[in-house]
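#help-structures
NK: newbie question, is this the right format to request a structure? protein is Septum formation initiator
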Amino acid sequence: MRTVRQEANIARERLVQGLALAVLLLMGLYCVAGPSGLLAWGENQHLLEERRAKLVELQAERDRLKNRVALLNPQNMDPDLAGELVRSHLNVARPDEMVMQLP
């Protein structure tokens, strides 16, 4: 025959085991659906690819600007670039040029 004390111990053990199982299930859920879990991993990979593509674009833009700065060297300035800059910033044109305004 079971005593009241044994039944209380069994109930306490089941409660502890239930709480431990609940904690393990929550930890597993966090590993799968948490901010750094398996579901977020695919999204992070997608964002990484987007940022790598943006980095390639920015590096190409930086290289273009570096080349333009090198062409503006005061000792050896590119005459075409100098003429382009003068016309665009000072709004001047040569007499033989036709100015066309786009809508």
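mod (FA): yep, format's fine, and the tokens are attached above. The chain has two domains: 1-33, 35-93.
NK: thank you!
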